[in-house]
């Protein structure tokens, strides 16, 4: 069944790509088929195939459900020992460690006697932050009466970054634990969810990794709330389609997932790649690789999208998103060195190819746009009298309908899946958690408009990242900014002046060489020219009820618990003067509860 589903999905995506290719060839034949027309048709084939692949995942997610996990007694006594790993890197310890306190308090509230420890793994490079980590950790242990259950260590050499940090712990201390729950510094999980994950992995001896679908929370800015809405409203459907296609070789996103410690230790050692960064050095997008290595050794890797109570935070503005995406870009392109590793499952290799394609796809769109603008330079003048001595001119038939149909089809691949998700949410009652059917539909339209405006800017950043990697620039591992992300227009211009220049130059060249394309390229060029204003505007706090998500209507218990602990600790451990902006990690209050 799984093979048939994969074949169907690939076939539908290929059919859409081939259809786009044929339509464009027919359009190009109107004035005589040129070599450049074939090149453009091939570029549109690849680009459409990629868009169709995403649409097919949504279609599968809408029309099917993954096999439910084995039934587990929610009151069964947990036998194994679990450690929760919290890697930190120059984070505000008050915010991060209060998350640990909140999760421990949430576990305690379940009255379950499962043995769950927490280990804070610090890769902090700044001594002043490290000193505060020790202070706040001592307070954490005292408040939670956690001596012997909570551990802290700071590495002197942060080789391998987060993956190396976790590997170091597994190597030194992993044998003491049956299961390891891996979090990010901004992760939060309900105690009941943690216990459910432990019971599920304990009940299935072949399960090596269990991934949850984290919900993005505490978004304040227009950009963050759009991402938050998309992650809560659309992503579960796409994730369900992904889970159906991946089967037993599911995804690992690096956090909010539990692993069988022995399986991870035996399977997931990551040697440094030969050569220098960006393609050599430590593996940056280690999570995909670790999932593939577990599958190679015969372990099940599963995404259980039914698990609730798993949360994370996201960037507050486009610039911070682009910085994080730059690291992901380098990590995914690095997988070109790993995709041919011996023994990997075929689907694992396909997942690597998807990750690479996710970042190089904009290059195909860019190539198509450049080729289309340049095409008039290579088109011979029309011959209205192809037959000698024939007295009447010949006017070739217009194929404009083919171009319009192609454009409608491409936009349909982007828009229709989200509209179908909104329609289904209204019919099955899911929309109630998003303010009701009408508000959810209005939010869907707003998100589509917002993503259409910001897509050219985000694609410009992504394209630059690809070129930086291809030309040998190492992006490193920058610290995440998790607090107030408001940017001025000047900040936006400093970050995106080159996008403004490219957008203006592109429209000018189009008007000069191919004025007929100008109207079609305005939705790309104008947002690029307006990039500084879009960046600034989208970084400002949102006061709208649009993009409402369930966590804003009814704040989850773990978020309320963390807010209370953080507020108390923030007063007890005020940041040194001038350092609060440097940490930028205070928890966000949702607009509905500010």
Automatic annotation (TrEMBL):
Predominant location category: membrane
Pfam families to which the protein is assigned, alphabetical: Glyco_trans_2_3
Biological pathway: Glycan metabolism; osmoregulated periplasmic glucan (OPG) biosynthesis
Keyword Secreted appears in the UniProt entry: no
Keyword line: Cell inner membrane, Cell membrane, Glycosyltransferase, Membrane, Transferase, Transmembrane, Transmembrane helix
Residue ranges constituting the Glycosyltransferase 2-like domain according to the UniProt record: 181-380
Compartments where found: Cell inner membrane
InterPro entries named in the record: Glyco_trans_2-like, Glycosyltr_2/OpgH_subfam, Nucleotide-diphossugar_trans
Coiled-coil stretches noted in the UniProt entry, renumbered to this chain: none
Membrane-crossing residue ranges in chain numbering: 40-62, 356-379, 403-427, 495-513, 518-537
Membrane topology category: Multi-pass membrane protein
NCBIfam families recorded: PRK05454.2-1, PRK05454.2-2, PRK05454.2-5
PANTHER family attached to this UniProt entry: CELLULOSE SYNTHASE CATALYTIC SUBUNIT A [UDP-FORMING], GLUCANS BIOSYNTHESIS GLUCOSYLTRANSFERASE H
Family: Belongs to the glycosyltransferase 2 family. OpgH subfamily.
Protein name per UniProt: Glucans biosynthesis glucosyltransferase H
Species of the source: Thioclava nitratireducens
């Amino acid at each position: 069944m799984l093979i048939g589903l994969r074949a169907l999905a690939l076939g539908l995506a290929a059919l859409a790509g081939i259809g786009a290719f044929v339509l464009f060839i027919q359009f190009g034949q109107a004035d005589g088929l040129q070599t450049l027309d074939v090149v453009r048709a091939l570029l549109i084939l690849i680009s459409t195939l990629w868009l169709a692949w995403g649409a097919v995942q949504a279609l599968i997610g809408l029309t099917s459900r993954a096999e439910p996990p084995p039934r587990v007694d929610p009151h069964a006594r947990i036998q194994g020992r679990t450690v929760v790993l919290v890697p930190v890197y120059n984070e505000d310890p008050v915010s991060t460690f209060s998350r640990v306190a909140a999760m421990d308090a949430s576990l305690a509230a379940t009255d379950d006697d499962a043995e769950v420890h927490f280990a804070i793994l610090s890769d902090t490079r700044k001594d002043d932050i490290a000193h505060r980590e020790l202070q706040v950790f001592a307070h954490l242990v005292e408040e939670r009466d956690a001596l012997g259950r909570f551990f802290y260590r700071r590495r002197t050499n942060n080789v391998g970054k987060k993956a190396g940090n976790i590997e170091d712990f597994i190597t030194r201390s992993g044998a003491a634990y049956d299961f390891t729950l891996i979090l990010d510094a901004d992760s939060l999980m309900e105690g009941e969810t943690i216990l459910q994950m432990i019971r599920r992995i304990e009940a299935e001896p072949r399960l090596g990794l269990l991934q949850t679908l984290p919900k993005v929370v505490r978004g304040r800015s227009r950009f963050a709330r759009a991402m938050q809405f998309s992650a809560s409203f659309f992503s579960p459907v796409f994730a369900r389609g992904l889970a159906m296609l991946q089967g037993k070789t599911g995804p690992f996103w690096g956090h909010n997932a539990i692993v069988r410690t022995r399986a991870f230790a035996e399977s997931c050692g990551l040697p440094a790649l030969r050569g220098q960064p960006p393609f050599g050095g430590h593996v940056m997008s280690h999570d995909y690789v670790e999932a593939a290595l577990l599958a190679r050794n015969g372990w099940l890797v599963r995404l259980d999208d039914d698990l609730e109570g798993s949360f994370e935070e996201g960037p507050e503005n486009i610039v911070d998103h682009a910085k994080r995406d730059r690291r992901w870009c380098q990590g995914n392109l690095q997988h070109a060195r790993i995709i041919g590793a011996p023994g990997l499952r075929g689907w694992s290799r396909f997942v690597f190819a998807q990750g690479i394609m996710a970042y190089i796809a904009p290059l195909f769109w860019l190539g198509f746009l450049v080729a289309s603008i340049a095409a008039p330079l290579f088109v011979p003048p029309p011959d209205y009298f192809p037959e000698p001595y024939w007295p009447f001119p010949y006017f070739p038939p217009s194929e404009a309908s083919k171009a319009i149909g192609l454009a409608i089809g491409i936009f349909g691949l982007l828009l229709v899946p989200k509209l179908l998700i909104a329609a289904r949410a209204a019919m099955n009652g899911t929309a109630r958690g998003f303010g009701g059917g009408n508000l959810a539909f209005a939010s869907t339209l707003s998100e589509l408009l917002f993503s259409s405006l910001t897509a050219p800017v985000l694609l410009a950043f992504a394209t630059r990242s690809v070129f930086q990697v291809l030309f040998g620039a190492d992006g490193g591992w920058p610290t995440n900014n998790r607090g107030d992300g408001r940017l001025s227009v000047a900040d936006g211009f400093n970050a995106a002046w080159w996008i403004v220049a490219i957008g203006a130059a592109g429209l000018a060249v189009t008007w000069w060489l191919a004025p007929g394309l100008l109207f079609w390229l305005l939705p790309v060029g104008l947002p690029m020219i307006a990039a500084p204003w879009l960046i600034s505007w989208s970084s400002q706090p949102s006061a709208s009820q649009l993009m409402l998500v369930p966590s804003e209507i009814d704040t989850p218990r773990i978020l309320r618990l963390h807010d209370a602990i953080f507020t108390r600790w923030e007063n007890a451990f005020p940041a040194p003067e001038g350092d609060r902006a440097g940490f930028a990690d205070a928890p966000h209050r949702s607009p509905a509860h500010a």
